[in-house]
Design brief:
The protein is α+β, with helices and mostly antiparallel strands. About 30% of the residues lie in helices and about 20% in strands. It contains four helices and five strands, in the order αβαββαββα. It has a five-stranded antiparallel β-sheet with strand order 2-3-1-5-4. It is elongated. The mean pLDDT is about 85.
Length: about 180
């Protein structure tokens, strides 16, 4: 089964981007490359159960097994040792990437408390967008009774666009709710 956003990209968004950007070559148009979801669990230095809970939650949200990330160097002030497990991340590509983005836009973001739109300044200068969620329970896959510790996550959407305005056009075409100037 073809993901809904992938069909929308091929049928509606790609021709609209070609006209707006003035390009005939469809391979030069911006497209999604990958989505990286990262959960840093700093409290995991004291309690390993928190890292296991975060890994399980990320597995349910993304649909694939996360990689446990390790500390690169020791920091005595944080009681952190090199090689200690401090987080988890997952890289989504292809079908899973489009399905995750669809669930993020249509289900998770509307469930965020006091949501007024995404910050349009989250672009990195090369067309990629970074955003953060303060709690993972906005995803309906997670049972709030099982996950008692609220855990945030960083989401990076990597595009093939070379400029922020092209990446913004691509994500706005998918339906990303960016803040407007009036707010």
């Amino acid at each position: 089964m073809i993901p809904r956003l992938f069909e929308r990209y091929n049928e509606e968004l790609r021709p609209a981007l070609a006209e707006k950007l003035g390009r005939a070559n469809r391979l030069s148009l911006p497209r999604l490359e990958k989505i990286v979801v990262n959960m840093g669990v700093g409290r995991a230095t004291g309690d390993k159960k928190l890292l296991e809970e975060a890994t399980d939650a990320l597995r349910l949200i993304s649909g694939q097994k996360p990689i446990v990330t390790l500390a690169r160097k020791s920091v005595a002030g944080f009681r952190l040792r090199e090689g200690q497990a401090i987080g988890c991340k997952v890289t989504l590509r292809g079908r899973r990437m489009y399905e995750f983005l669809d669930r993020l836009i249509s289900l998770a973001l509307p469930r965020v408390r006091d949501f007024r739109g995404l910050n349009p300044k989250g672009f990195d200068g090369r067309g990629n967008y970074n955003m953060g969620l303060t709690e993972q329970l906005v995803f309906p896959e997670l049972n709030p009774d099982k996950y008692v510790h609220t855990q945030g996550m960083n989401i990076t959407i990597v595009t093939s666009a070379n400029q922020d305005n092209e990446g913004r056009e691509l994500l706005a075409g998918f339906g990303m709710p960016f803040q407007t100037d009036e707010q």
